[in-house]
C-alpha cells in the first residue's frame, strides 16, 4: 500500500484516531521536550518495531535454533557495554527493577539508595524492604561518599543502589564498589538516561564495578520501550531464573529486533557525535539559565541533565505546568538532600530530545534564557504567548530525528525530516522500510 493511500484510508476508516494522530504530530513538532525520559525513536528501530516481526514471539520453551533474535540482541548489548551477561526480554525499567530485587534480596532486607530510588518499584509483601536514603549535601550540593560509607557501616545494607536521575555529575564507581564490598552488599547502578553516553564512551561506565547495571532503552538510546539488565557471570544464572520467576517468559520478536539494531547504532561514530553534542547542549542550556538569573544545582553539569533550583515559594509542578503552556515540557519535583528536613524545589531538564532534533548550543542557550525569563516573570498570558512564539520559531525547521545522527549517511524525508508536518511516525516507518531495503540491496551488491 502506498503511504498516501494508507494515510487516506486511515482518515476515512477511523477519522477520530486519525485526528488524534495529526494533533500528536503538531504537538511534537512545535513542543520542545526537555523531559529526561522523552526522545524520538530511530527510524530503523521504528521500522522494526512496526514490522512483521510483531506477528511472532519467543518464550523460554523455544528451541535454541529459534531464539536467534534474542541471542543477537543480548550479545550486542554485552559487547557494547563490556558486560558478562545481558538480559533483554524486559518490557520496561520497572519490570527490570523487580527482577533485580527478586534475584538479590529477601523480605525485610535493608537497601541504601540514592534518593531512595527504586522504592517506587516495590509493591506487595514479597518486596517489603527497608530503604535508607543517601543524597546530596545541602551545603556542597554534592554526594559525599564518606557520609555514604558511614551509613553503610552503621546499617549494613544488603544492597546499595545508585541511580543518577537527579544528579548531573559523574560518580566514582570504584569508591562506591569499595563501600559495598566493605559491608558485603551488592552494588546496583541504574544509569538511566546516561545509558547512551556510557555506551558511546562519553561517560564513565559502572559495568566493571557493579554487580548489576540497568537502563531503559527508549530515551538516550533511541530504541523501543524496553530495558536491559547487565550482570556478572557469577550472578547470571540467578538473574535468569528471576526473569522467569517474575513472569517474563515471553518476548515479542519485533522488540528484540529493534533492540538489536539499537545496540548496533549505539556503536557508530554518528551516535557518539550525538552523545557529545548532548553534553555541549546541556552546558549551553545551563549557561542560558544562569544568564537569565536562575540558579542550578550540583555545579556544572557533566551529563544530559540540568537541575534548575527554583526560587522559594515557586511550586515545581505549577511551574512545569506553566512552561507546558508555553510549549516547553519539563519535570518539576522536590529533590531530597542528606538532611531529611530539607528539600529543594527543582525543575529537571534534559538535552536529549533537543539534540536528537538538531538543536545546537546557540539555540539551547536561548532556550535556557527563555525559561529563566518566563519563570521570573508574572507568567501572564502575554508572557506565555511570547515564549510560545519563540519556541515555535526555534522548532520551525527542526526534524523529530536529525539524519546527522544516522549511520551510513542515510537521509530522511517527510515525517522524520523537515518537509511534511502531516505524516505520522507510523507512516514514516513504512517509508523507512522501503528506503532501508533499497540501501540494504545496495550494500549487498
Description of the structure:
The protein is α/β, with parallel strands linked by helices and 445 residues long. It is built from 16 helices and 15 strands. It has helices at residues 3-13, 15-30, 43-49, 68-81, 93-104, 145-155, 173-183, 195-199, 236-245, 253-265, 269-291, 316-325, 352-356, 361-375, 381-395, 425-444, and strands at 32-33, 57-59, 85-90, 110-114, 130-134, 159-162, 186-190, 212-216, 227-231, 250-252, 295-296, 305-309, 328-329, 331-336, 343-350. The strands form four sheets. A seven-stranded mixed beta sheet has the order 3-9-8-7-6-4-5, with helices on both faces. Helix 1 crosses helix 2, helix 3 packs across helix 16 (425-444) and helix 5 (93-104) crosses helix 9.
